[in-house]
Design goal:
This protein is of the alpha/beta class. Helices cover about 30% and strands about 25% of the residues. The protein is built from seven helices and ten strands. The strands form two sheets. Strands 6-7-8-3-9-10 form a six-stranded mixed beta sheet. A four-stranded antiparallel beta sheet has the order 2-1-4-5, with no helix packed on it.
């Protein structure tokens, strides 16, 4: 654990132009190196909570600090710099369909202008980490859902992010595949990356015990060090 917070939110409110309040006074501190589940009913504000972290949304009120960046005062031109420190994994994979596995991961590094040699080395490293080195030349359509999710994790960690946000990463996967994904996320966390995972999986949360933050009606209603899922599914 570092001696500073990876994520700090103070008095955060988010109201959308249509009048819907998604977040209603959020205060939270997440230390460097933690693994945190974010749980709660659909529409409770979980997505808004995670989107604030990579500046896809701005708070209506309050401060959001990620890895020492103050997102309220961050200039637009600095947003790419912030995002280089954050990997994001989505429920629907979001891979580029015409690119190979290798190219999908390399693309994340080309954007930040790494050298070709470094890119090649790093892509093979992360593909090995997600156990897909042998599928480097495949395109997403030739892969199972679990393999596609592993590619999207490889892409998200290619740039050594300090924070990995996983939004329902097992939502479209069968139980066995979900456990594979969880073990990979645990390994990434063990290497020092802070992992924040929004999930509806009671089984995962209750089996792999970690800090649980529960959000309901835009507020944190529970924050437990080794919490349970706490909702009927």
């Amino acid at each position: 654990m570092g001696d500073y917070y990876m994520i700090e939110m103070k008095g955060v409110y988010k109201t959308y132009p249509n009048g819907v309040t998604a977040l209603n006074g959020i205060d939270v501190h997440i230390a460097d190196g933690e693994f945190v589940y974010v749980v709660g009913p659909s529409g409770a504000g979980k997505s808004t909570f995670t989107r604030l972290m990579f500046r896809e949304e701005k708070p209506s009120k309050g401060t959001v600090k990620i890895n020492k960046y103050n997102l309220s005062t961050l200039k637009e031109r600095k947003v790419p710099q912030l995002r280089r420190n954050i990997g994001v994994v989505y429920q629907d994979f979001r891979l580029l369909p015409r690119m190979t596995v290798y190219e999908n991961v390399a693309f994340a590094l080309e954007v930040i202008e790494e050298s070709p040699n470094q890119i090649r080395r790093r892509v093979m490293d992360v593909l090995e980490q997600v156990r897909l080195k042998n599928k480097a030349r495949f395109i997403p359509d030739e892969l199972s859902g679990g393999e596609q999710q592993r590619v999207s994790i490889a892409r998200a960690i290619a740039n050594h992010p300090k924070l990995l946000i996983a939004d329902e990463p097992t939502g479209n996967l069968d139980p066995d595949t979900s456990w594979e994904i969880m073990h990979i996320l645990e390994e990434i966390n063990a290497k020092g990356t802070t992992v924040l995972m929004a999930t509806h999986s009671q089984e995962i949360v209750n089996t792999i015990r970690r800090r649980v933050i529960a959000i309901e009606d835009g507020q944190i209603v529970r924050d437990e060090a080794r919490g349970e899922y706490g909702y009927e599914t």
